[in-house]
Amino acid sequence: MRRFLFSLFFVVLMPSSVAVAAEPVTGQDQTLAETGWQWMLTDTDTLRVQMSNALRDNATYDISECMFCSGEEDNCQEDGVYPVNLPENEPAIAVVCHTGAHSQRVQVLAPMRDRKQPVFTATGTYWVDYQPLDRGFNVTFDKRGSDGTPSINTATWPE
Predict the structure, then answer these.
(1) How far is the C-alpha of 81 from the C-alpha of 79, rounded, in Å?
(2) I want to staple 35 with a disulfide (CB 3.0 to 4.6 A). Which of 62, 63, 66, 91 is the partner?
(3) DSSP 8-state secondary structure symbol assigned to residue 21
(4) Is the pTM of this model over 0.85?
(5) Is 7 helix (H, G, I), strand (E, B) or coil?
(6) What tens-digit pLDDT sequence spans the chain (159 residues)?
(7) Where are the alpha helices (DSSP H) in the chain?
């Protein structure tokens, strides 16, 4: 019983800012908390994210370079679609996916800022690590210089 109570206590006290990605399944509406917006991954002729609200405001983003994977290899556990915390319930999502042979990318889709293009993109040579904040997020990613020298970079959005 003590172990059960400790586990329950731990779950209740876990920080609410832990990143949880929505499973990127095509054709299913996903609600963006209290923003009044929802998003859906579509894959008709090309992979896209459609965002909309009850007022029929729409935004469509081409993410055809994205490939989602699962498991622990190649940092696949980081792939997914994450809500981004912004003031005044502004809608935004971060799409983390693989692109090309080895790279991983994060793109922010924010329909109030741009309805066709991501407002932020960071691509790691091999990986990205997305960490939500109370407002926006931090992303850490690797890069290789032209001489092959590795580096680790960090960016915050919004700045």
Answers:
(1) 7
(2) 91
(3) P
(4) no
(5) helix
(6) 444 333 333 333 333 344 556 557 888 889 998 899 999 999 888 999 999 998 888 999 999 999 998 888 889 999 999 999 999 999 999 999 999 888 999 999 999 999 999 999 999 999 999 999 999 999 999 999 999 999 999 999 998
(7) 2-13
Backbone angles phi and psi of 35, in degrees to 5: -80, -20
User: Among all chains, which residue has been given the structure tokens 């917006």?
Assistant: 37
* Residue with the two structure tokens 């960090």: 154
Backbone angles phi, psi at 3, to 5 degrees: -65, -40
Taking phi over 0 as left and psi of -120 to 50 as alpha, with beta for the rest, 89 belongs to left
Distance CA 121, CA 157 (A): 10
